[in-house]
Amino acid sequence: MKISYIGGGNMASAMIGGMLSQGFSGEDIHVVEPDAEKRAQLETQYGISTGAPDAPLPASQAIIFAIKPQQFRAIASALLPQLGDALVISIAAGIRADSISKWLGGYARIIRVMPNTPALVQAGISGVYAFNGVNDADKALTSKILSSIGEQVWVDDEAQMDGITAISGSGPAYIFYFMEALQAAAKAQGFNPEIAQKLAYQTFAGAVKLAMNSEDDAGTLQVKVTSKGGTTERAIKALETSQVRSTIIAAASAAAARSRELGDELGRDTE
Fold it and tell me: What's the predicted TM-score (pTM) here?
């Protein structure tokens, strides 16, 4: 079995590292990467094969496009003669399956994946959509690959990939924003930067761990730590007065809308 990556950037590296830790062999993996120094690094670090874009692509069971969306059409067209019957997996943000299909001459064995940056530490979650030519074996292979970088959620409606992008794709940035704000709040209370960071980060990490291991939902957990007349209740009231909840919902809606726009823009020339 050979899994070929088109592009050897951070997300591809995270996936390769995860695959090797999950039992894949370095002999199973090939990377097409234009940068010679990066190719050498990947070969040394992971014990895999690499090639330049103009080199022949080995016969592959799956080809994973881990490239910038703006590069996709040209690279897909160039690789079309070497595609064979490989499963095409795209982790390029915004590119819809029907656009990929058109660029590949009507090919239909296509799976779209929206990973997120915690994949870099094998703690990601990916949204996954299968186009109409995908079979159960293709789905099983994709799940095996993606399980190496975290969890996954499959959707039947490709339009939901915009929502996946808004919630989990862009979501880490929202979390980091909140963490930075909590850290700033700690500094405002007189703590030095090191202690402020430790308080903010570990509070967040501990709360997430508690939520992940609890049978209660987040709303119930919040109520349980909010004593009537106490300090937490005062803070929650301040958040509600500032409409933080509705602002977060509006922010995610804005991200989803931009995802739809990008899909339109990137696929505009597919006709």
Answer: 0.91
